[in-house]
Amino acid sequence: MLRAHDVLVVGGGNAALCAAIQARRGGASVLVVEAAPKFYRGGNSRHTRNLRCAHDEGNEVLTGPYPEEEFWDDLLRVTGGQTDEALARFTIAQSKELWDFMTGMGVRFQPSLTGSLSLGRTNAFFLGGGRSLMNTLYATAERMGIDIVYEAEVTALDIEDGFFTAATVVHDGRPYRVAARALVAAAGGFESNIEWLKEYWGEAAENFRIRGTPYNRGTLLRMLLDAGVEPVGDPKQCHAVAIDARAPQFDGGIATRLDCIVFGIVVNREAQRFYDEGEDFWPKRYAIWGRLVADQPDQIGYAIIDSRSVDLFMPSIFPPIEGQTISEIAEKLDLDAAALERTVAEFNAAVQPGDFDLAALDGCRTEGLTPPKTNWARRIETPPYHAYPLRPGITFTYLGVRVNARAQILMEGGMPSANMFAAGEIMAGNVLGKGYLAGIGMTIGSVFGRVAGTEAGRHVRN
Asked: Where is the chain membrane-spanning (predicted)?
């Protein structure tokens, strides 16, 4: 299989498969090289749960309309305006086609989860999660005659004046020169490369957990940048959430995420709060917490709730640390007991009366407290108390390659490559300058995967 093809797709996640399928539909012969073993194929996509898409009306899964302009407003808020507006609006407009595209390939969806996620109207949840999604896409690709090779790592690219001719692919310990008429780069970011992360974060990166695949080491990204591709994105920006500190270094996935933050308080090693836990609905703000924890001493935080909130969120796979008193919680967390008791007491004293409502920005807030808590503030006073240790959980990095709306990779100076295209996390920084919106990673990967495959196929035909 490691021979010349019309289109070479590097990567094995959702974006890569969307690209491969589209290129094959255009009549091209397609080879997909995936660095991971077959069992771990799919990159971070196998850990995903849902896809955000604009739509004009609800359906059997989505509970109501999600107009393009509302999607744009949501994205603008979480990125603080750090996005390429033209590409972002293009992504949102194209997302309207994803429901039919996915269901047409046999992908099945389930009713959205209820409760604190607030995603029933905006996001479609994959039945069986990301692994089921990837199994369906791979089955489709195989039926279409797309060649797929696992444990195949690209170690070199032949690129001259922005034109790709071949890649060196190592498989079973042997290097192969694989020529192709078009390249689709869909191999993710560099979040699993701790040494690369340390170039920007320093030793703090040693305390990061990588939520997804250990195979996203940025090898392809580095080669493209070294070949004169124009970079995009701040290397310190990433999709980073607060996860259970007891999670494994790599591949813990969605189960290690903690959704309890809005229901209590979060303190650092000094037992001090450092951010508003109730700033916005969780799907719009949860991805800021990884960076917030990363900026704290020793890159650790502690979420503390009382017994009234235990059943309001999806817990981690790790049990909470329990105590009948705040002092007992402090002792178990190795925090200064007097400092934690003082922080909780000051928080409780600042909580104002209000009607607690998970489904709304309820205005249950603190007064005279810095930082404030602006929604869902309730006194922490009903034992047993529960605590979870937090670490930064990196999903993917935003440093990537710049592209245009045809998914063409741009060389330094802005000239588009004639036959190199990109999709997924390796180019997500074009849309995500900072922040994150639940499900938008899959949106970007699906939209630009389809575009990259279509354009690669068109280049081959021409």
From this structure: none
